[in-house]
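Our preliminary data section would be incomplete without showing what the modeling component actually yields. Below, a chain of 338 amino acids is followed by its predicted structure, encoded as tokens that our downstream tools consume directly.
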Amino acid sequence: MKINTRNEYDKLKSIIVGRPEYANWPIGDVFFDNMISISSFTEGTLDRGAVPIWVIQEAKEDMMNFIDLLNEQGVAVYRPEITDFTKTISDDRGVRSQFHSYSARDLLLSLPNMMIECPTPYLSRQNETEAYHYIRYQAIQDGVRWIKAPRAKMEPAECKVIGGRIRLTERYPVFDAANIMKVNDKLLYLVSATANEIGADWLQSIVGNEFEVVKWKGVYAFSHIDSTLAMLNKDTILCNAKRVNDHNLPDFMKDMKKIYVQDMAERTYHKFPYASKWIGMNVLSVDPETIFVDPIQTDLISKLKENKFKVIESPLRQSRTLGGGFHCITCDLERECE
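Predicted structure:
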């Protein structure tokens, strides 16, 4: 198995697509609890425990349709092993239930001949990468450098809620792979509730001189980068206009072509939206001209077509319930770098 990606848009050859099976809203995870506590949703709270079967089934149907479309584009698809995330685990970090492997992007950072299991702040997800053990073994057998970051302890003092935001300490590295956008020789690293600055420093020590880790601060404090910014090709970025402007973009992106998105169509959700409507801009590029988009995002699709992109429409009806669009639910393994 080859792992070789330097950006988000070169021709895709192979990819991981996550699974919704046994998705579960965890207990015993202080970081998860804090994230739910600061949600702007006021019409209810998240019921903990197993996600309803009908939600999982609907997500499975949409993901299988997505996989069929990827196959039609010549993309090889790998999946994590089916794992029962409703089971409770106990270790030195306490007793907790687990989460899901729906969002494959969150914990795995693929680079040239390297995969990094990232130091997620979610205690409920720290064992999740075991669902990828067959992928891990295949990659290692083929010479891939597979690195597991030190796990974050995540005691309550490490992730306090201050002023309606989670503040991480800088005691040890914390970040999700979904905080990072690959831009050829740069790794744009969003400092937020799910990624601290020492995490960027640790990542720089691992990738060495091959990449420059660029810290992006003061833009979006809540979570991941891929509902804020998307790299569509070497010259074009898709920007969330509510968070991004010409002034707060990283310097190396300021001369790129920007497609600003003012709003998103809102997917329905089951009881509680784990993702905001901005999950609609969570797109996946198959190559520099071709992009997967949810068909309800008609305004976004029109803008992309106006800019000469080919759009493949595929629904993700539970993207807000489970918290993941096309970029979230995938981890690109190999792209044909220019």
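The chain has six helices and 21 strands. Residues 11-336 form a domain with the L-arginine/glycine Amidinotransferase; Chain A fold (CATH 3.75.10.10). Preliminary results of this kind motivate Aim 1 of the renewal.
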